[in-house]
Amino acid sequence: MHALVAMLPRPDAGTVKVSRQLLEASDWAVLFTLGTLLFLLGAFAMWAWLIWRRTTHPAPHVKLLMELEEEQAEREARKMTPRE
């Protein structure tokens, strides 16, 4: 950004004085924007972690249902195979 400002010609009348209140307000606006960005990034990271956590470490009742489904599939597989 500073490189682009250096290429612009200086105005003949000089630059406009900006009041201290506007500078302070713009500083707070930048800080608020950065804070919002960091908050959203943190919320997205927490959401991604929660999804990862639920898929890799399911709740006990979900784990029990998964084990029951596996046992039932094994029983059906044993019934399908002929005994020798």
Describe this structure in words.
It contains three helices and no strands. With 84 residues, the chain is an all-alpha fold. The protein has one domain. The relative contact order is 0.04. The model has no long low-confidence stretch (mean pLDDT 85).
What share of the residues does DSSP label as strand, in percent? under 5%
Alpha carbon gyration radius: 31 Å
The tally of helices reads 3
Total of domains: 1
* Helix content bin: over 70%
Return the structural class: mainly alpha
Distance between the termini: 80 Å
Summarize the helix and strand pattern as letters: HHH
Unreliable stretches, pLDDT < 50, 5 or more residues?
none
How many strands appear in the DSSP assignment? 0
**Largest sheet composition:** none
- Anisotropy-based shape: rod-shaped
Rounded mean pLDDT is: 85
Jot down its keywords.
single chain, 0% strand
Summary?
With 84 residues, this protein is mainly α. It has helices at residues 2-7, 20-56, 60-80.
